[in-house]
Specification:
It comes from Hymenobacter aranciens. The chain has helices spanning about 1-20, 20-75, 90-95, 155-170, 175-180, 185-190, 195-225, 230-255, 260-290, 295-315, 315-325, 340-380, 385-400, 400-430, 440, 460-485; strands at about 100-105, 125, 130-135. The chain is an all-alpha fold. A hairpin with a 4-residue loop joins β2 and β3 (about 130-135). The radius of gyration is 31 Å and the shape is elongated.
Length: about 475
């Protein structure tokens, strides 16, 4: 009996939805918007891949140039005919010129779906012995951090636009029966009204979900290839997005169960969407920004500068005097640049950079401590808003969450220290500062790029089960209300 009822209801729902021209038009618009968001995400991914390709080509050009110059110098008996500061046989010169390396965060296929922190966090750095330069937002006064979705992408469409379509899809499932006069007929039938309404919501949810994934799956495969289908990230994403849609269908079922008019149902659902999707996340963002303010770039730069000044006011003066006042460096003869001077500058850079790095580490620790506190607070409060939870989950599963960019930044810091361990002993040793050769060039450390798409901090299984319980509770509440209303 249930199978025949489901078959009749399925046929009825298809005809009802097809005849609703407003809904058909809205679905067409949302389809275009969904395809546009996927295309935009694919375009950003291709642009990033092109940039990474250009970085690789630039690196090859620099490496070839260094090898050719060192080969020519070796062929001329170790004599460099040009300006001494360009002589690559000085370890200090090579560290400044051809030594800097690029560190790249390899793109993850699913980042097509969620920009996350990708529009404010760098996916590559140029790493010098004295800094890591990301070339993006370098001149900003504030430190860039975007806790909430700000780009028109797939995640924006899913989190903010599709719930509105679901509201149009479901707001009058029950109220329309009353307004059209069929409610009395339903009450006099031998079928459970609560069960019939639950079936109708389930059928509409299944139709919506099938339509959505039949669009997203093939389009995403065309954009990035089928490789993402073999990742756990994708299947967790499918589960969370499907459950997010189920939440809004369940909420509409509960609102319908109170037997309000269609207008009140629509207003109630839209208000809930505004509250959970916009108001709560933004209030949380404002509260976190005030509770854990992020230090500005000015304060970080000031702390580094003060540490350097304090160093040179004390120990640095003695070092500078010892290095640059010695007869060997001949620093007093300003019109003559000697090999000893290059060595002296290398020593100064080495010693002063250690102090600057220590100061920068303290300043950066203050910055990242505040961001980490914000992230911990978001993890505690994200369950109060399904939209906020979805933003966090989509960014993490797409490899564009702050945690993943932060891990990339930490890896780059370690790589810079590796470069320093390679160049500093050569720069500061009298035995090696002026004999950099092809063997040394081949041994220059290279960053090993990789994707950053792990999400162990997120507890996805726990969050998914919790919201599945919420959806189940909504359906149970709506079903109970309808049973009471049918009496």
């Amino acid at each position: 009996m249930s199978t025949s009822i489901l078959r009749v209801l399925f046929s009825h729902e298809l005809k009802s939805l097809y005849r609703n021209r407003v809904l058909v038009t809205l679905c067409s618009i949302i389809l275009v918007v969904l395809l546009a968001s996927l295309w935009i995400g694919g375009s950003l991914l291709r642009k990033q891949q092109r940039t990474i390709g250009q970085i690789g080509e630039h690196h090859r050009v620099l490496a070839d140039s260094l090898n050719q110059r060192l080969t020519r110098i070796a062929a001329h008996g170790g004599t460099y005919p040009g300006f001494i500061w360009d002589d690559p046989t000085f370890a200090y010169n090579t560290a400044r010129n051809e030594g800097p390396q690029y560190a790249v965060k390899q793109p993850f296929a699913l980042q097509v779906l969620a920009t996350g922190q990708g529009d404010v966090q760098p996916f590559y750095y140029k790493v010098y012995i004295n800094k890591k330069q990301h070339l993006v937002h370098e001149s900003e006064i504030d430190n860039s951090l975007l806790q909430f979705v700000g780009t028109f992408d797939f995640s924006f469409v899913v989190v903010y636009l599709l719930p509105l379509l679901i509201i149009v899809f479901t707001y009058n499932i029950l109220s329309a029966e009353k307004e059209q006069g069929t409610w009395v007929l339903l009450k006099t039938s031998n079928q459970s009204i609560a069960r019939l309404m639950l079936y109708r919501v389930a059928i509409r949810y299944a139709l919506f979900l099938a339509f959505f994934w039949l669009v997203v799956g093939p389009v995403l495969t065309l954009l990035v290839g089928p490789g993402f289908l073999g990742t756990g990230n994708w299947w967790w994403l499918v589960g969370f997005v499907s459950l997010y849609f189920a939440f809004w269908f369940g909420l509409a079922f509960v609102v319908n169960s109170f037997s309000f008019s269609s207008n009140i149902n629509a207003m109630t659902l839209i208000f809930t969407w505004l509250l959970l999707g916009l108001l709560v996340p933004n209030l949380l963002h404002i509260g976190l920004s005030r509770a854990y303010p992020i230090p500005s770039r000015i304060s970080m730069s000031t702390a580094e500068r003060n540490a350097i000044n304090a160093y040179f006011e004390k120990d640095g003066q003695e070092l500078t005097k010892d290095v640059f006042s010695s007869p060997r460096t001949q620093i007093r003869q300003a019109s003559i640049v000697t090999p000893g001077m290059v060595y002296g500058y290398g020593v100064i850079v080495y010693k002063s950079q250690e102090i600057k790095d220590a100061a920068a580490q303290v300043a950066e620790r203050k910055l990242y401590d505040q961001i980490e506190r914000q992230q911990q607070a978001i993890r505690r409060w994200q369950l109060i808003s399904p939209a906020l939870l979805m933003q966090e989950v989509l960014a993490a599963l797409a490899g564009t969450h702050w945690h993943q960019f932060n891990q990339f930044s930490l890896d780059v810091d370690e790589f810079r220290r590796e470069q320093q361990r390679f160049f500093y002993p050569k720069m500061a040793s009298e035995a090696t500062y002026h004999n950099f050769d092809l063997q040394d060039a081949a041994a220059i450390p290279r960053f090993r790029p990789r994707t950053y798409a792990v999400y162990e901090w997120l507890r996805v299984g726990q969050s998914l089960l919790l919201y599945a319980g919420v959806v189940g509770g909504l359906l149970l509440l709506g079903y109970r209300n309808l049973l009471l209303a049918a009496r």
